[in-house]
Amino acid sequence: MTEVCSIIESLSGHIPWNKGKIVGAKPPLRPKHVWSIRTKLQVEGRVRDLALFNLAIDSKLRGCDVVPLKTYDIAPSGYAADRASVRQKKTGRPVKFELTESTRQAFDDYLRATE
User: Fold this and answer.
1) What pLDDT, on a 0 to 100 scale, did the predictor assign at position 115?
2) Would you call 97 helix, strand, or coil by DSSP?
3) What is the value of pTM for the model shown?
């Protein structure tokens, strides 16, 4: 593979954008990384980002399924529910998941901040 890249570079003078980068599936976040991201978001006071990050971690949904979620999907009565259900975009199947206490608290903080 490196021979092909070197031949392409020598013939075209073009360097591939992903040369030397890891391609393919990335390893999942480790618990220490998750906690460091949460702590950083809390310290910076980014309540929306913290709520979405916690929601993504709890639900284990793909990004394309987390982004279109509405406040009503998670907090139909104005407070974050214990459980939620979302229909996956790729498979079309409904996914039920529980929200941890920290996620519910972060989501309630976000709702109070937007009022």
Assistant:
1) 77
2) strand
3) 0.74
Number of structural domains (the chain) is 1
Structural domain boundaries enclosing 39: 31-114
pLDDT on residue 100 = 92
53 inside domain: yes
Indicate whether 59 belongs to any domain: yes
Which tokens hold the place of 9? 């570079």
**Contact criterion met (CB below 8 Å) for 99 and 84:** yes
CA 70 – CA 73 distance, rounded (Å): 5
Cα atoms in the Cβ-side hemisphere of radius 13 Å centred on 115: 8
Query: Is residue 21 a part of any domain in this protein?
Result: no
DSSP string, 11-51: HH-PPPTTTTS--SPPPPPPHHHHHHHHHHHHHHT-HHHHH
The answer to whether residue 74 is domain-embedded is: yes
Q: What is the pLDDT of residues 51-79, one digit of tens each?
A: 999 999 988 888 889 888 888 888 888 88
Q: What element of type H or E holds 92?
A: none
pLDDT of residue 22: 80
